[in-house]
Amino acid sequence: QLKVQLHNSMGELEELDQERDKAEYELKQLHGKLMAAMEKLRYFDAVKGERDQYSEELSHLREQKAQLDVQVREQEARHNQQLEANAEKLKLLEGAEERLKQQFEHLAHQVFETKTAKVDE
């Protein structure tokens, strides 16, 4: 009877060894998956950090663009005002030139008339 019990105990021990080996294999598999998941998590953390940095840079660049847009509109307004002022000045100068031309022609005509009158005398 001891032999039977010993034989049964040996069988149970063998089954337990197999279960232990199977559990050990599964543990190694799960450990590998855990390490892969942790590596992915580190990667995702790094990517999130980069994304946050790019998001911050993008926000900063958008602020700069908005400021530059304001500056461009202000410069365009000043430029347009300067163009209008220059056009007005040019118009005034052209008017003055025309008046001077007419005055010069009138003066030349008067000089001519005066000389003609002296010659006729």
Describe this structure in words.
The protein is 98% helix and 0% strand. With 121 residues, it is mainly alpha-helical. The longest helix is centred in the middle third of the chain and has 119 residues, at 2-120.
Which overall shape is indicated by the principal axes computed on the Cα atoms?
Answer: rod-shaped
Strand content: under 5%
Average pLDDT for all residues: 95
Distance between the termini: 174 Å
From N to C, what is the helix and strand string? Answer: H
The number of strands is: 0
Taking pLDDT < 50 over at least 5 consecutive residues as the criterion, the unreliable ranges are none
- Helical percentage: over 70%
**Radius of gyration of CA atoms, rounded to a whole number:** 51 Å
Number of helices: 1
Structural class: mainly alpha
- Biggest sheet, open or closed, and with what strands and sense? none
Helices and strands in order, then pairings?
Elements: H1 2-120
Short overview:
The chain is mainly alpha-helical and 121 residues long. Helix content is 98%, strand content 0%.
Structure characteristics:
single chain, 121 residues, mainly alpha, 1 helix
